[in-house]
Amino acid sequence: MHHLLYLSSATRSYDESHLLALHTQMHRTNQATGVSSLLLYGQGHFLQLLEGEHATLQQMLARIQRDVRHHELTPLFHYQCPERCFEATHISCYAPSPSLSQLDGFLPLEQVTTHCYRESYTHLPALQTVHAFAHQLLDATAAPVQR
């Protein structure tokens, strides 16, 4: 089992319908390849954690690098891990619509931060990065403090 984490800039803004379509495509691809994943979207960026066999993840990364939805794609981590952290295809974003929030596989950012900070995952660098990115998105959407 391996983790592969990348960060990319979105080539355009993604609304609810685009994110729903992306989740459907990811779910089909992941089921066919035996990969689980978490995709975070916010502030014009994608951060995706992929979990699966090394060769499969390398092939997926090559395909994602050619995908027109991404530019400035930067692989951050690729390492062997003891187990999956996510059992399915998940998506999370800041300011989700009500219908996106009801999607099977949607995780609120607060749940992402909690899940990634479980004691058994704190030594995994990809999960630490996902945790920090989710917190950054939460902080960006927090209301300003009134003085």
Automatic annotation (TrEMBL):
Residues annotated as coiled-coil are none
For this protein, the record's Pfam families field holds: BLUF (PF04940)
> Per the database record, which ranges form the BLUF domain?
1-92
- Output the PROSITE patterns linked to this UniProt entry: BLUF (PS50925)
Q: What is this protein called?
A: BLUF domain-containing protein
Origin organism is: Hymenobacter sublimis
